[in-house]
Structures are given as structure tokens and as C-alpha cells.
Amino acid sequence: MDDEYHEYVRSALPALRRLAYVLCQDGHRADDLVQGALVKLYLHWGKARAATNRDAYARTVLVRVFLGEKRAGWARRVVLVDRLPDVASTGPDPAATLALRAALATLPAKQRAALVLRYYADLSVDETAEALGCPANTVKSHTARGIAALRRVLPDETHPADTRSGR
């Protein structure tokens, strides 16, 4: 069982860390989120192993650790804002990427999680609803409100795409 868990973690770790970073915008916090998610995943490995989609299960655990952290107030106790990010932006337009990340960080946790899962992780509404543990209509509402909030603060050329084909 442990070997199977370790093999899964080796393959899934980069994607989980990227998702965590997009959610929290801080490399160290992303590492903490992933570590917390991996602990929970290990404790419930029997259920995770039996899941039809282990990656979806792991993403759900990670998002719930992120949302639980927000509810617990950890972000209010420890905030590192006087440091530059550890990793340089690799997007096509670094200024637009930074503007989008800053705007995304201002959203409430559930709106941010909905947008990240829908547009970064490329999940469907139903998959996002399952990961967040809420109805599909709530995902649609969080997504619409999040996009509207981003449009209010971002210049026109940095708006995220808001149309989904076939999803």
C-alpha cells in the first residue's frame, strides 16, 4: 500500500503544487497546502485508491485543505507581502499574468477556487462542484461573480476567457 501511495505522489506532486500555487499565490504556502493534502490523502488512501479518478480525488482534498485554511484564519495570522515570488512568471505576458494573479488573490476563497478549478485545472462545472462539495449552480454563481470581479479590476487585455465550449 505504501509503495502504491508513494508512486502516486511522485507522479501527482508537480500538478498538485501548481494548483496549490495558483490558489494561494505563495510558493511556501503552496508547499504547506500540498503537504496537508498529502497527509489527508495518506490517511484515507484506501478510499483514494478505490476512486475512479485519483487525480480528481487528490484535487478535491487539496481544494478543501485550502478552503479549510481560509476558514481557520491562518492567512490572517501569517502574511508575507514584502517579498517577491520565488518563481518568475512564465506566462506569455508577465505583466498581465501578475495582474491576473493579484486580482485573483483579492477574490473570496470559494470564488477563487471555482475559477482556478474551472479555468486553470480545466474541470467541468460538475467536476468543480464535486471538488468543492457544492451544487453545480453554486459553482456557476461563484464563477460568474469571480469573473465579474476580475473584469472590474483588470485591464481589457488581461480578462480571462469566460466561454466554455462543450462544458
TrEMBL record:
Q: Which domain of life is it from?
A: Bacteria
Identify the residues that the record assigns to the RNA polymerase sigma factor 70 region 4 type domain, covering every copy.
98-150
Gene Ontology biological process terms, A to Z: DNA-templated transcription initiation
Q: Which residues form the RNA polymerase sigma-70 region domain?
A: 9-72
Q: For this protein, what is any one GO molecular function term? A: sigma factor activity
Q: Which UniProt keywords apply?
A: DNA-binding, Sigma factor, Transcription, Transcription regulation
Which SUPFAM superfamilies has this protein been placed in?
A: Sigma2 domain of RNA polymerase sigma factors, Sigma3 and sigma4 domains of RNA polymerase sigma factors
**What is the similarity comment for this entry?**
Belongs to the sigma-70 factor family. ECF subfamily.
Under NCBIfam families, the record lists: SigE-fam_strep, sigma70-ECF
Q: State what protein this is by name.
A: RNA polymerase sigma-70 factor, sigma-E family
Organism lineage string: Bacteria, Bacillati, Actinomycetota, Actinomycetes, Cryptosporangiales
